[in-house]
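FW: tagging you since you asked about this chain on Friday. Here's the raw sequence from the shared folder, copied in full. Didn't touch anything.
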Amino acid sequence: MRAARGLVVAQFDAVTRARRWELFREAFPDIDELSVVDLGGTEEFWRHAPVRPRRVVVVSSHGTPGRVLPWLDVVIGDPTAHTGAYDAAVCDQLQDMTPEFASAVRQSATRYWVRSASVRHADLQRLFPDAVLRRERRGGFTVSRIAAKPR
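HL: got it, structure written out here
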């Protein structure tokens, strides 16, 4: 019974991730031409992504710094203090959204994608007033929220 339940959850997760990547691709149809900064992300996220930006820089407080793949670099540091100009900023699975983090996202790129399971809709709207907000649902429940500014 436990194994069957685990398979069902895994399948729901896979379907949810696939739909999320569809939404991402709709927001950024030119993703293969973009330079992307992932604030607080992981290299594994991009290794398994079904999209391949021209360049990705992952800024995280942990991991191994350096060039991971020809198009993927990891920088160790505070994502809110990172500087640079990119075509798009990405933050997936954000646990806590502070005004400083929202500012770092907006200062890194004019286009962005921020997803969180714990940040309230009203807070995302306040922090990203120019974003298109979406609720990611599973089984009738909101499992995460997305703030995206594709253009």
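FW: The beta strands are 35-39, 55-60, 66-69, 72-76, 88-94, 111-116, 132-138, 141-149.
HL: agreed, and The two ends are 47 Å apart (CA to CA).
FW: great, closing this out.
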